[in-house]
Amino acid sequence: MHKIIIIGTGFGGISAAINLKKRGIENFIMLERREFFGGTWLQNRYPGAAVDVPSPLYSIEDEPYPWTQMFAQRDQLEQYTLHIVKKHQLDSHIHLNAQVKIASWQGEHWKLELSNGNTLLAQTVINATGPLSTPVIPEFKGKEDFKGVSFHCNDWPSDLDLKDKKVAIIGSGASAVQIIPAIAKDVAHLHVFQRTPHWVLPRPDFRFPKWFQKLLPNKWVYALLKWGIYIHHELRVLAFKYSPLLLKWVAQRPALRHLKKQVGNDETRKALTPDFIIGCKRILMSDTYYPALQRDNVSLHDKSDSIVTINNKGLLTSNHQQIDLDVIVYATGYDAADSMISYQVVGKNGIELQAQWQEYPRAYLGTSMPNFPNFFVVTGPNTGIGHTSAIFVIESQMRYIMQCIEKLQAPDVLSMEPTEYAEDNYTNMVHSEMEKTVWHYGGCHSWYQNKSGKVIAMFPGFSFNYRLMCKKFKAQDHLIKRSHLHGASPSNINEQASC
């Protein structure tokens, strides 16, 4: 039996593994469902892929790196990921092609059943599969009839040549905004299908001078830069939560100026102007998206010219236009709110996590759930962040998870879970605070919300407040199951508020 099994090998899984090794815990494995490890930046190989958070902030704690530019491209993010894995010797812990089908609590440990038929046992499970790992492709009528190449942008074919091809990209969100400028110059014609426009701000990217890149590995220089960027980004919460007027002045007005500056045609500009408050959906950053849409070989189709059906040659629009295509790219996002965990999880007394989350996903600190002992979710419900780096939140969760794991190392401790009362109080607080944010009142429907309309993806406040909550372990919020080791009693006992 393993002490700990980490499911996922992206930054969440890597951060968990590094923290375990720092504590001298080596009896763990990392499961990766794909034939390669590394998560987002090894999976997403679409043209133009890059991070939308400044690189020094989008890095693992105490792991400086000589980034070449403020917003790193995918290739450098891949290099950074591989560098961290090699530096901390995580390779030997990683099991590839290991997809979990069912995780079930057996009373004192977890049993994981894999799709390859193997079964694994562990005292503790850390789920780090990530919220953006379940691609969504809408059920367009006739999509199976298309004879050309079609795929979700999350699975971009490595051998795909778009030179002189007729291409449609469905979606206009974060991935599409990066892909469209990268491929527009090569294709014969590109059709962009936009359901709703997004707010777009200029991308303040630049290359670091060589002399500055040489300074970045210095932990003090790196820390100064990282925390300076962090403070600047953290101030955005004042607009997202506390001041609609501030949000309009510091974000929406600049976005409108950017649109007006780059799009001269009134009709096109109208089609690209959102009808919701900026921040309600993810704010995009690009200096090349609007110019790409205005190329002679690019056609923008808004909701007035939507897709009616897909056929063997291409697709038919609501304006009765048949568009013949060679390639269809689905940049249609992920199920981040209702399918945070893609496999079946069965806890105490046969309770299934999907049943417990039937109304909406919820967890204590967005990390642990009553009825699911020794099970932790990295980037779980309401841990997303709209103004700073997701890695900061991951590392905050690690402060809580590692305290729990340290307590589970005691020979008499069998299991730990939050109480229903503590989880309920935390969840009520989160959704009460959420009503003050633009994600709630902004007038849009986004992937931040689940099917019930609850905002599930985001944390409604300052990220440092979340870190403080994770840092201050509250014994009274947990139910701990202990065993008598010295024969006083063969039965197990349950303790609440005892660590």
A few lines on this structure:
The protein has 15 helices and 21 strands.
The total count of helices amounts to 15
Q: Which structural category do the helix and sheet elements fall into?
A: alpha/beta
Roughly how many Å is the radius of gyration? 24 Å
Global outline: globular
Q: Biggest β-sheet, characterized? A: 8 strands, mixed
Number of strands: 21
Portion of residues in helices? 25-40%
Unreliably modeled segments? 486-495
What does the average pLDDT come to? 92
Residues in β-strands, percent: 15-25%
Q: Termini distance? A: 24 Å
Task: Describe this entry's structure for a reader.
The chain is an alpha/beta fold. It has helices spanning about 10-20, 40-45, 75-85, 175-185, 210-215, 220-235, 235-240, 245-260, 265-270, 290-295, 355, 390-410, 420-435, 440, 465-470, and strands spanning about 1-5, 30, 95, 100-105, 110-115, 120-125, 150, 165-170, 190-195, 200, 285, 300, 305-310, 315, 320-325, 325-330, 345, 375, 415-420, 480-485, 490-495. Helix 1 crosses helix 12 (about 390-410). The longest helix has 19 residues, at about 245-260.
Question: Mind sketching the topology for me?
Answer:
Layout: E1 2-7, H1 11-22, E2 28-31, H2 40-43, H3 74-87, E3 94-95, E4 100-105, E5 110-114, E6 119-127, E7 149-152, E8 166-170, H4 174-183, E9 189-193, E10 200-201, H5 210-215, H6 219-234, H7 237-242, H8 244-262, H9 266-271, E11 284-285, H10 289-293, E12 298-301, E13 307-310, E14 314-317, E15 322-324, E16 327-330, E17 344-346, H11 353-356, E18 375-377, H12 390-408, E19 413-418, H13 420-434, H14 438-441, H15 463-471, E20 478-483, E21 492-496
Parallel strand pairs: 1-2, 1-6, 2-3, 4-17, 6-18, 7-16, 8-9, 8-16, 9-12, 10-11
Antiparallel strand pairs: 4-5, 5-6, 13-14, 14-15, 19-20, 20-21
